[in-house]
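Support request from a user on the community tier.

User writes: "When I paste my structure tokens into the form, the page sometimes reloads and wipes my input. The last time it worked, I copied everything first. Here is what I submitted, just in case something in the input itself triggers the reload:"
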């Protein structure tokens, strides 16, 4: 009976260690994502990506198929250019009001 107790304790300890390692890895990945987002992301880029994702989702449901890489790129760049143009227009309006 003592051997089975040690076996059970060993199994539980192994499971606990594997869960701890998995969770610490996930936390490390989340920290890296947050750090990269803080360093490389801008409001303009975030808004353009959000718009492009919603457009892609609607096109996928509309066409009932996956989009090609060219279609995805076209949507992303259209959203980015439109967001940049809106930002530039806002700057021009602010400069004209001064």
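"...and here is what came back when it finally went through:"
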């Amino acid at each position: 009976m003592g051997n089975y107790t040690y076996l059970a304790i060993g199994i539980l300890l192994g499971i606990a260690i594997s869960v701890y390692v998995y969770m610490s890895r996930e936390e490390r990945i989340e920290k890296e994502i947050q750090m990269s987002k803080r360093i490389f992301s801008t409001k303009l880029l975030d808004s353009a990506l959000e718009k492009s994702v919603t457009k892609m989702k609607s096109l996928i449901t509309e066409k009932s198929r996956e989009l090609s890489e060219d279609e995805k790129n076209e949507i992303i760049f259209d959203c980015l250019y439109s967001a940049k143009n809106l930002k530039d227009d806002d700057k021009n309006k602010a400069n004209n009001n001064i």
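Agent notes: The reload is a front-end session timeout and is unrelated to the input. The helical segments are 2-40, 43-63, 69-97. The chain has two domains: 1-40, 41-98. Escalated to web team.
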